[in-house]
Amino acid sequence: MPTLEFKGKQFVYSHHLSVPFRELKIDKDKSLSGKGSSPSLEDNLIIHGDNLEGLKALLPTHAGKVDCIFIDPPYNTGNEGWCYNDNVRSPLMKEWLKKSANPVDKEDLERHDKWLCMMWPRLQLLNELLSEEGSIWLTLDDHEVNNAKVVMNEIFGEDKFVGLFVVVNNLKGRNDKEHLALTHEYIIVYSGDEYISRGLELTEKQIAEFDLVDEEGIPYSLRDLRKRGSEDRREDRPKMFYPIYWDKGNDSLALEPQSNESVKILPKRGDGTDGRWRWGKKRVADNLKDLKAKESNKGRLDISYRVYLDLEDSSNRKKPKSFWSGPEFATDLGTTLLKNIFAGNNPLGHAPKTLSHVARCIELSAGKNAIILDSFAGSGTTAHAVLEANKHDDGDRKFILLECEDYADSLTAERVRKVISGYPFKGTQKEELLKEKITWSNFSKKSTDILSKVDQLEAKHSDKFDKIKKEIKDGVLTVVGERKIEKQAPGLGGSFTYCTLGEPIQIESLLTGKGLPSYEALAQYVFYTATGGSLEAVSKPSVDGLIGETDLYRIHLFYKPDATWLRSNEAALNNDKLEAIKASGAKGKRTIVFAVAKFMSQKELTKNRIEFCQLPYAVHKIMGN
Q1: Which of 173, 224, 372, 561 lies 20 to 30 angstroms, CA to CA, from 350?
Q2: Predicted local distance difference test score (pLDDT) of residue 316
């Protein structure tokens, strides 16, 4: 696979490994807790601090758990004023950065190298945080899109590339190019190992197509089992060409003849040549009850399969097109919304992504209980979109925002506070409900369907809006809901915990007693370094010191953030602690115990299949450095 070489790559290649772990420190005063609850790392999170260190801080709790990553990094246009200042240890790297311009501007001939040096370790950590079913959505324009795709092939894997979406967000066009006016940007999407696109929510018309009902009253529709379109020939998938037998008498299907009356059905294309089924034999055998044979007036035999109406099932949702266009993506809308929230001001200073832009990515990738991460949070549009999604379908999605700028509290978190609780606003809020291209020919043929669709929208949303406005202009039908607000825009509900990054968890601090990490932080840290996984929850210190387990390991920790206790005999692994570990142990699992000392022989520990890791140094043995 081709790889991309850039200045500084050899120095940042493993930089994410040397970034220190930091404890997430909760700031109660800046958090917004739910009724009757306290700020917690289990809640939505807004983290103020360097996003590289913030991503590393999330690994002990969220490695492999994030379902959707949406990031909007600097586009590197030369006009953004971003700085590259990662603390890479290499003297050559430091010398290079010392001599080069910062912030990065158009005159910097090495700005692409700096951007790649900045993105590489962050993408590495994001890859570790991504769940197997998850996906990462990276927004860019043409300044770095080509470089980003090659780098993401290298980090995530070329086979994990989902697609490149084009988003038209400025119909007038930007004039920063000499020969053309740019109207669009891009979203690059990569996935985990088991990602399945959720698709878009079905329209009223598509729901109406589930016009059949099974024995239990569940709506379904029938779809052709024979593959159509590309790769529909027998030679494309030879194993998908096999007979299915239909017993007309009892209208049943099987993979073997049931009687002399059984009719053999083969997947034949329209021209009579051999085609193929969509499913292999095993899947057909497992779903025979949902298959139905049919015979056309001309005697052609085909088989259909049932698709049940399940609005959460991705197979029932609409496949997204790679080209997104519509007024809901216009950058002006993002600015207008931010001004409405902040009493006419735009504290960000430039246009943020629109709510629909981020919401579309979340809809395609995140179910009701997903975790969504944005490590370039800006004005907090991602959190706003998550709260909107939860309001729409009563979901329990969680957001994690990282923002390094000083406005993390005054803008990012403040926007989230306002949309949760409501904010002063007087004016008209508008929401586009339908946009459809209309021509005279399709209107004359489908006028009843189109008018019925509009009537259904009015009936569905009439209680939410004061007025539903319909308009046909320039061949486009739009239906927009409008609500007048006199004093206060209603809140979406929700909560979040505001965090800062604490001092690095320097395990050597146990020797000096200064800057000791909390029990929870050290438990998460040693569990991650021992297993590569994140700890679901940290229980209180117990007699046996168990902090968590995986399919292979049980991890125990004896620790208090107290220098006097750490120097006492009580901190050591002794016979009483060993007996408690044995009593709670699970057979067949490797037991790893972290403590500052042990008062027993290695022979005794080996007999009980216990590996002792002395704090602080043995942590590095587990980490492999």
Answers
A1: 372
A2: 59
DSSP 552-605: SEEEEE---S-HHHHTSGGGSB-HHHHHHHHHH--TT-EEEEEES-BSS-HHHH
pLDDT at 372: 98
Q: What is the pLDDT of residue 126?
A: 97
Paired with 557 in beta bridges are 594
- Helix or strand (DSSP H, E) at 91: helix 91-99
Q: Which residues of the chain have pLDDT under 50?
A: 618-625
Specify the pTM: 0.73
Q: Are 79 and 141 in contact (CB under 8 A)?
A: no
Asked whether residue 108 is domain-assigned, the answer is: no
What's the pLDDT score for residue 326?
82
**ω before 103 within 30° of 0 (cis)?**
yes
End-to-end CA distance of the chain: 29
CB 479 within 8 A of CB 454: yes
Q: Please check whether residues 381 and 439 belong to one and the same domain.
A: no
Contact criterion met (CB below 8 Å) for 39 and 26: yes
Q: Does residue 112 belong to any structural domain of this protein? A: no
The reply to whether 333 and 351 lie within a common domain is yes
pLDDT value at position 510? 67
pLDDT at position 622, please? 39
* DSSP codes, 179-222: S--B-EEEEEEEE-TT-----BPPPHHHHHT--EE-TTS-EEEE
pLDDT in tens, 430-478: 777 776 777 776 666 667 777 877 887 787 777 778 888 888 877 778 8
> Which three-class secondary structure string do you get for 412-463?
HHHHHHHHHHCEECCEEEEEEEEEEECCHHHHHHHHHHHHHHHHHHHHHHCC
User: Does residue 260 belong to any structural domain of this protein?
Assistant: yes
Residue showing tokens 């052609």: 300
535 burial type by CB count under 10 A (0-12 exposed, 13-18 middle, 19+ buried): buried
Is there a single domain that holds both residue 606 and residue 459? no
Asked if 386 and 514 sit in the same domain, the reply is no
Do 160 and 22 share a domain, yes or no? yes
Residues 193 and 340 in one domain: yes
Q: Mind spelling out the 3-state secondary structure of 111-163?
A: HHHHHHHHHHHHHHHHHHHEEEEEEEEEEECCCCHHHHHHHHHHHHCHHHEEE
| Partners of residue 506 on adjacent β-strands | none
Instruction: Identify the CATH number of the domain in which residue 381 sits.
Output: 3.40.50.150
Residue 224 is assigned to a structural domain of this protein = yes
554 and 606 fall within a common domain: yes
Domain count, the chain: 4
